[in-house]
Amino acid sequence: MGFEAYLDDIGPATMALIGFILFVIPEPATSALGAGLLLLGAAWWFYEWQR
To answer: In terms of residue numbers, what domain contains 19?
Structure first.
């Protein structure tokens, strides 16, 4: 059991992190895009969690 077990979590976590960073930038367009990426990354992470 090595690093390979965590490879499926890198994509969703990165998307959620980028979404959070864009969400806190005080610009309406980036905040909306960031909220969308944050929700999509969280949904993807939950989907991968049950697989």
So the answer is: 3-49
Q: What is the mean pLDDT of each run of 10 residues along the chain (51 residues)?
A: 72 89 90 93 85 67
DSSP of 4-23, one letter per residue?
GGGHHHHHHHHHHHHHHHHH
Q: Are 34 and 5 in contact (CB under 8 A)?
A: no
pTM above 0.85, yes or no: no
Half-sphere exposure of 34 (CA within 13 A, CB side): 15
With the CA atoms of 25, 7, 39 and 37 taken in that order, what torsion angle do they form, in degrees rounded to the nearest 10?
A: 40
